[in-house]
Amino acid sequence: MSVSRIAIVGAGAAGLAAAASLQAAGGDVVLFDKGRFPGGRLATRDSPWGGFDHAAQFLRLRDAGLRDEAARWCRAGCLAGWPQQAAEVPAWVGTPSMRALAAAWARPFELHGGQAVQAIDGTPFSWSLRFAGGGVAGPFSRVLVTVPAPQARPWFADSGIAPALAAIRYAPCWTMMWVPAAGRLPPETVFGAAADGLDWIAREDGKPGRDGAPRYLVHADADWSTAHLDEDGPDVAVALRQRAATRLGIDAAAVHAVAHRWRHARVTGAAQQPVLSSGDGRYYAGDGCLGGRVEAALLSGRAAAQRILEDGDDR
């Protein structure tokens, strides 16, 4: 059934998946994101030495429908298999970057970047978005929010889904982008299940479709990230570089080393519902609904679109 204009707040995996399903069904969809680029965790940081996928490292797609979509994305040149992460469920990476994958997904939509939503105002099935920098967009008959739950809670404080949103839990992650000064590096390109506060080390230049200098992306584990959450980025970069160098058996000197903090990186307590609906035209979807994987966010976004379409015409 048809609905009027639909706003999606957050252009990450869930928001983009929802937009694709809604637009395919004839929906009039507009996306808003506070970032300059779409993608959320499908993020890439540029540097003179090459890009760093400094959030999601890869996708593992177990859902048959998404795996069919992956074949189409591969044919379009924005996705490739990552043989170094071979497992029972294949790993995929965006090409030439994770940000490029998100950009390809976002291309068909009306997307407004750099728009931080401050409030969602209005009455049932007639909602407007008020932005932190001034300005208002709307009205929209439906608003789907896909940002991390702590950011979304104020917009649903008066709704029945407020307790479910409050129960969603996240762990942080410090990530470090490192170009070693060492001339000789280990031949391996992936070092998972590390220790001493590290959760992941991978050679960015070892991924499909990448070029640039030899460089590493390092993730701290949840415990270390939590313990050092409020430390300064340069200090965190030094600490993680030293730990990574010990793990790799190389000198810790760097040509480039920058740390980035993700406060809501890993879902540790999901709602265990694919979509949350307030019953008045406001919806919530994202990895906080089904679990902390890109696939979970994609499936939640699709479920939200289906729920919006099933709810039907304006009431």
UniProtKB/TrEMBL annotation:
Domain of life: Bacteria
Residues in the signal sequence: 1-24
UniProt-listed SUPFAM superfamilies: FAD/NAD(P)-binding domain
UniProt keyword terms in alphabetical order: Signal
KW Transferase (keyword) present: no
Annotated InterPro entries: FAD/NAD-bd_sf
Gene3D superfamilies reported in the protein's UniProt record: 3.90.660.10, FAD/NAD(P)-binding domain
A UniProt-annotated Pfam family: NAD_binding_8
Entry keyword annotation includes Signal: yes
PANTHER family linked: FAD/NAD(P)-BINDING OXIDOREDUCTASE FAMILY PROTEIN, FAD_NAD(P)-BINDING OXIDOREDUCTASE FAMILY PROTEIN
Protein name: Amine oxidase domain-containing protein
Organism of this sequence: Sinimarinibacterium flocculans
